[in-house]
Amino acid sequence: MNNMNKIEVLHTLKQLGIRPNKNLGQNFLIDKNTVSKIILESKIKNEQSILEIGPGLGALTEDLVKYSNQIYAYEIDSGLFFYLSNKFSNYENLKLYNEDILKAKIPSHDIIISNIPYSITGPIFEKVFYNPHPPRGALVIENSIAERLFIRNNYKSFSRITVTFNAFMIPVRKFKISRFNFFPTPKIELSLVIVEPRKAIDELLLSDDGRSFFLKFVAGIMPYKNKNMANAINYFLKKDKNFNYSRQHIENFLHENQIKNDKLARFSVDEIIELSKKFFAFLNK
Questions:
Q1: Range of the domain at 269
Q2: Is the CB of residue 194 less than 8 Å from the CB of residue 137?
Q3: 109 and 29 share a domain?
Q4: I need a surface site. Which of 25, 85, 220, 227 has the fewest CB within 10 A?
């Protein structure tokens, strides 16, 4: 049955002998209006290929197969995978995978449309978006994370994910989604976010080494966003035994590259990207 409600979801799960697994982030969509909202905001074109992560019982998949010539759906739960395989056996435009999305080699795709497992949002972002050719996205995620994607010069919301995500993507729109539209009801507030790839991704992020350094560097300095940049970099270097630079070395580097030694939280995303690029070159001289 299309767009299952709570009673139908409970009945189907009972028939399958499946209990929602919190560790797998299994919160099943039970509201057809939410499905319609996701589809509408996705602006799918027929020729575009779609990635869906965690289709569950296929509430969203049922509509996706109507709008695209090619859908790749990854379901880690074997019971749900076999259920979906039977349910969509007549659809040649749907390719199902019984794999962990974080370990899978994902086919090229144009847009990701998913109610993703909320506990692995960061790793999914890195897997799907942090590369030279990221797709568009329409994702239901935790609202507190959605808030941090949008840059509003707000110290509290400026975080590691703000910098890394905006280095590759542009958050376009955000809509609150009721958590009661899912079963089991998650304890967190949710949002639908629409995101697009940046038109130009910095050259540092186009190479594996540069991208790896950038993600490590941002993760290392952002816990110290209330410190000035020299201190933040100093703390980052102290945690890596491969580097042996004094605070004076860092201050000289900033001065020579005309980078202000201001509080980290006052830097823009693009300034942090540029700093990362220059510091990467400095460490590899």
A1: 204-283
A2: yes
A3: yes
A4: 85
